[in-house]
Structure to design on (516 residues):
């Protein structure tokens, strides 16, 4: 008997100890769960949870987020979307047998009720456990309402869509027979409906901060604000560009010559380019481009050009240096102006070569006529010099020297500046048989200069011009000279007093007697 009592006591004590251990270990978990439910209920009094839908096992399922965790409230093999939350309630639409039905979920109690079971129902909105939505009735959408107990049809007749609810006020859009959109606000308390707006923007009404606003109108206002902000940004950008343009360098560099702007050189002297410096307000010293170089072997006035550009492509004002090449190194009174940068000492327009040729030919013809009009054109051997006619200096043309020296046909030698060795004479006449001398031509000293008995030829005369000079002199001489031509002296004529000699190739020249 005592053994039985002892056994019962041990079993009862063990059960009690086990129960106490289970209660002691499970109490914190139970308390935590109860505390979380209490905190969620308190949170939902003043806040709305974030809701959404996500694909799970091929179907869209609705969830809400609390403390950073997703809590799914649907798990059926159907698509549930269009979830909306308000405080402790969540409403959503689930496709049941292909037609949307409206459900209402209570968060604290984790319970769900199905509000509709027929037709197609979409776009649910929620406030304090009351729900409005669109239902397809016959051939158009109508607005329905759930007051927490039963379902009521709010509209009929005209098309009615986009319902929204806030407390006891319901707003929706209605389209009449004239296809005019109107926003209607309905009061659950007074059972009265009022049209608050007409027009296209009245199609999308909703509650915002307990006031009726229009979504399309808000979009237009938002678009206008964005365009205004864009215009302000563009205006600011243009203003910054204008300010930047004002800061862009527009000042060109300034060129300063090294040395004199006018330099006088004697014929044959060496010219040394001293260059120039260019200073820019931004780039400092910039390189200078020099264009031109004088030919000190020819008398004339040469111009050297100095140019430069800075990094902003501002061209400096061109600076010129004048080089006067004369016989004595003094400033010339009348001289040919030569621009080395154009490689031409002639005062002609290169674009009209016919005028250049015509001017040269006119000068040659005038010189020939003037030469053959003199009493005697046969100089003596001592005066066997090239004849240069005086050209009018006011014509601004380069004087052309007329040379009567005969040249062979086979190997013509161009008339150039005389060398240091004089050209030998061919069969000179004896001194006793000299003809009447020709008067000395007047030659400008700064153009033609005699050096040691030989003339300085400033410009070459082409072979065709030399032939042109000799032919008129031979043909016109008998008509212009009044006195009879003296009998020719039987001696070897000079080259200047005979017609053009006929030369055999690669043999000594043979001079023929003058024709009678």
């Amino acid at each position: 008997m005592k053994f039985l009592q002892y056994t019962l006591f041990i079993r009862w004590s063990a059960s009690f100890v086990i129960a106490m251990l289970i209660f002691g270990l499970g109490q914190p978990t139970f308390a935590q769960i109860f505390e979380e439910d209490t905190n969620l209920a308190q949170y939902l009094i003043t806040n709305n949870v974030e809701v959404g839908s996500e694909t799970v096992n091929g179907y869209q399922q609705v969830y809400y987020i609390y403390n950073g965790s997703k809590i799914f409230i649907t798990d059926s093999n159907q698509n549930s979307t269009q979830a909306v939350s308000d405080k402790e309630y969540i409403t959503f639409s689930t496709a049941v047998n292909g037609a949307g039905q409206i459900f209402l979920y209570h968060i604290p109690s984790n319970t769900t009720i199905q509000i509709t079971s027929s037709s197609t129902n979409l776009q649910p909105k929620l406030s304090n456990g009351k729900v409005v939505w669109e239902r397809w009735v016959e051939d158009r959408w109508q607005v329905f309402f759930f007051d927490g107990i039963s379902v009521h049809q709010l509209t009929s007749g005209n098309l009615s869509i986009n319902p929204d609810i806030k407390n006891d006020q319901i707003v929706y859009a209605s389209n009449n027979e004239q296809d005019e959109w109107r926003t209607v606000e309905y009061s659950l308390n007074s059972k009265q409906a009022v049209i608050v707006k007409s027009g296209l923007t009245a199609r999308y009404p909703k509650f915002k901060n307990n006031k009726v606003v229009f979504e399309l109108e808000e979009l237009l206002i938002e678009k206008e604000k964005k365009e205004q902000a864009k215009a302000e940004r563009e205006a600011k950008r243009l203003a910054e560009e204008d300010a930047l343009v004002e800061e862009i360098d527009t000042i060109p560099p300034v060129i300063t010559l090294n040395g004199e702007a006018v330099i006088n050189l004697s014929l044959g002297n060496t010219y040394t380019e001293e260059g120039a410096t260019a200073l820019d307000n931004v780039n400092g010293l910039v390189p200078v481009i020099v264009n031109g170089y004088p030919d000190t072997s020819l008398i004339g006035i040469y111009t050297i050009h100095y140019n430069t550009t800075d990094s902003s492509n501002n061209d400096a004002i061109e600076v010129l240096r004048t080089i006067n090449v004369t016989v004595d190194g003094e400033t010339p009174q009348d001289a040919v102006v030569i621009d080395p940068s154009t490689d031409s000492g002639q005062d002609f327009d290169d674009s009209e070569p016919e005028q250049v040729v015509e001017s040269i030919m006119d000068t040659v013809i005038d010189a020939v006529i003037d030469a053959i009009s003199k009493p005697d054109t046969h100089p003596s051997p001592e005066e066997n010099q090239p004849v240069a006619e005086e050209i009018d200096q006011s014509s601004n043309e380069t004087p052309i020297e007329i040379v009567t020296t005969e040249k062979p046909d086979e190997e013509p030698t161009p008339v150039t500046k005389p060398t240091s060795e004089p050209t030998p004479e061919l069969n000179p006449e004896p001194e006793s048989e000299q003809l009447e001398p020709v008067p000395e031509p007047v030659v400008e000293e700064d153009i033609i200069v005699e050096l040691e008995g030989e003339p300085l030829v400033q410009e070459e005369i082409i072979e065709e011009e030399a032939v042109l000079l000799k032919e008129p002199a031979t043909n016109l001489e008998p008509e212009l000279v009044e006195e009879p031509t003296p009998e020719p002296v039987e001696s070897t004529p000079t080259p200047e007093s005979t017609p053009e000699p006929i030369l055999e190739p690669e043999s000594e020249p043979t001079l023929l007697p003058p024709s009678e």
In short: The mean pLDDT is 74. The two ends are 193 Å apart (CA to CA). The chain is about 20% helix and 30% strand. Residues 181 and 200 are 6 Å apart (CA to CA).
